[in-house]
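User: My instructor asked us to take a sequence, write out its structure as tokens, and then describe one feature of it. I'm not sure where to start. Here is the sequence I was given:
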Amino acid sequence: VLGHAVTLYAAALFFASGAYRTVIRGLFLTFDALPPGADFAPFGGVRHLVSVAGEALVGAILLTFPFLVLLFFIDLTSALLARAVPQLNLFVHGLPLKLLAGNFLLVPFAGVLAFAFFRIADRFVEEMLVLTRLAGG
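Assistant: Let's start with the prediction itself. The structure tokens for your sequence are:
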């Protein structure tokens, strides 16, 4: 359920930020960089592709870092409370608490995430064009 909600949120953010236009523009620009029927050397940009994948991983971690910290503190607090007062049985209520806290954190960060999402889509198009030029020779 949570994965489906996150997917719907990401899709809504993708279309609300206008990033879909950037991706479609980038798709059409790849035909200029690598025309149909041109020679294709798929291993020309492997080093560049690996560096882009590393940057994407770092970017994903930076985007999710506030949520990771929040979830860590919720787990830590519920573990300490469950140890101090075992009658509360807090681990049963842990998932709804995490969902509620994550949604409350998502509201103030929605604008920042939309801006970051649009920048990521724009960077994706630039890197896609670089890779097509490297693959084209």
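For the description part of your assignment, you could build on this observation: Residues 2 and 99 are 8 Å apart (CA to CA). Try explaining in your own words what that tells you about the chain.
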